[in-house]
Amino acid sequence: MAKTQKLAFVQTATLHGVEALPVTCETSVGGRGLPGIFMVGLPDAAVREASYRVRLALQAAGFETPNQHIVINFAPSALRKSGSGFDLPIALAILVATGQIAAGLTDQMLCVGELSIDGRIRSVRGLLAFEQLAVQSGQGLLTGPAPGGVYPPEQLDHHCLGNLADLHEMRLSQPYQAQSIEHEIEQDFAEVAGSQSAKRALQIAALGNHALMMVGPPGSGKSMLAARFPTILPKLSETEKVETAMVHSVAGLPYADILAGHKPFRAPHHSASRAGLLGGGSPPSPGEVSLAHNGVLFLDEMPEFGSAVLQLLRQPLESGQVALARAGGTTVFPARFHLLAAANPCPCGYLGDPEKNCRCTSSSVERYQSRIGGPLMDRFDLVIRVWRSPAAQVLATGRGQSSAQMRTEVEAGRLFRSSRLEQDSQGKSIGQSQTGQLLMELPGKGAQLLAECQLGHTELDFLEAAANAQHLSGRKIMKALAVARTIADLEQSELVGEEHLLEALSYRADVGFEI
Predict the structure, then answer these.
(1) What is the pLDDT of residues 10-26, one digit of tens each?
(2) Which of 354, 370, 379, 490 has the greatest CB tally within 10 Å of its CB?
(3) What contacts 315, CB < 8 A, 6 or more positions away?
(4) Using CA atoms, how far apart are residues 286 and 495, in angstroms rounded to an integer?
């Protein structure tokens, strides 16, 4: 007599990049075959190991573990499945197929969770991505408890299951809803003595989303300035909050500050590997450039990074994303970040210092400065010198220009730019409104930048003469023009004047590195 085959279908999902893709856990219990759990549908090692966790968890929770031929098919079969979040849907599918729980529990429910061998259920990384998928598909979400709380969308029906044994009495709980708490700025530009020219350059970078590099001797305050840079940036928009928090959720990192609107600030150590900076692993996980999405990536002691690793930054700087090609396919992570960098001018750090002599040979200086490479240096819009502040200014710390004052000026510049772009959009310059869009992201920025700047004959002649004298490439001319337009917006000037061009060109002055 043929053995009876019992079927069950439970909806779950797998992470691919920063998205959760739907998967159906199709389970057959019984039928012909040897006893045991057999999985098909491209499961990875973590998924295949679920058979051991599921058996022990079911026994610990007081359920019967069928000693039959059990086949688990993860559909679609062409999609690779990874992670331990399949434990819960596998266990639920077996219980439904064997009639130990009602089938209605899993109807219209996306189930994700990792099982402990004693029956407890753990939450998994990427919870925000699973929430977004559940909302998009019109389903509820069943997970393990989230100790730090969750931030579910209002339209999501989210339930938590603490232990498989709770299914005997159908004890489901609502997740603890964490609150994104506003906190005061802990670091302030007022604490940085002097460095007015550097603060000015940081304001320009914040307004125009320009990449900035600071070159100076040890102790000149480069790291202090960079750490306070996020305090003058505008808060994340609602769309940016979800985008950025999704990356951190997939990486298993907290994202409460991000949902409160604070931009991420990532400062990887110079020993970071290629996978650490750009992402990698199996399955691929986001690297520092993606964790800095919609925020700031600060590379301190930039020449100390591996040269090959640094050159990999050129692609995300141009495209705003990282594409990791693997045998199983290509995973894309977002990586639109604000680049800040700091470097000493030479190995000892005192090349050009008026007070201390440099001990480096010319060959060692050349090798040190060549580690970054011309193509990457060409991506920086502003390159400035930062010098140590005099003792009198250091002792006057706390009385300088504050972050609040600097942020007010940046916000005023952004409002002016938005108003200017909106006016232009009603005319013939822009065509369609680009209000709120960063200057450097405008489509067709070459011709459009010239139209935005409205240069007169005097300004054009000055720029042409300066470009010829400094041997500027076309890219550098456009970058200088974009910085000049940002400076004019900061000054709330409709036209880009000669003084704006002169200041922009000064940020391309010789600092030792090839620019």
Answers:
(1) 999 999 999 999 999 99
(2) 490
(3) 322, 323
(4) 42
Contact 61, 163 (CB under 8 A): yes
Task: Report the C-alpha gap between 145 and 127 in whole angstroms.
Answer: 11
Where is 12: in which H helix or E strand? strand 5-16
C-alpha–C-alpha distance, residues 433 and 293, integer Å: 25
C-alpha of 313 from chain center: 14
Cβ within 8 Å of residue 412, ≥6 positions away: 492
Query: Do 217 and 353 form a contact (C-beta atoms < 8 A)?
Result: yes
Count CA within 13 A, CB hemisphere, residue 341. Answer: 26
Token duo for residue 309? 């690793």
Place of tokens 């931030």: 151
pTM of the shown model: 0.88
Contact of 234 with 411, CB cutoff 8 Å: yes
In eight-state DSSP terms, residue 413 is H
Give the chain's domains with CATH numbers: 5-168 (3.30.230.10), 189-407 (3.40.50.300), 412-506 (no CATH)
> Using only C-alpha atoms, what is the Rg of the chain?
28
User: What is the DSSP-derived secondary structure letter of residue 323?
Assistant: E
- Omega prior to 390 cis, within 30 of 0: no
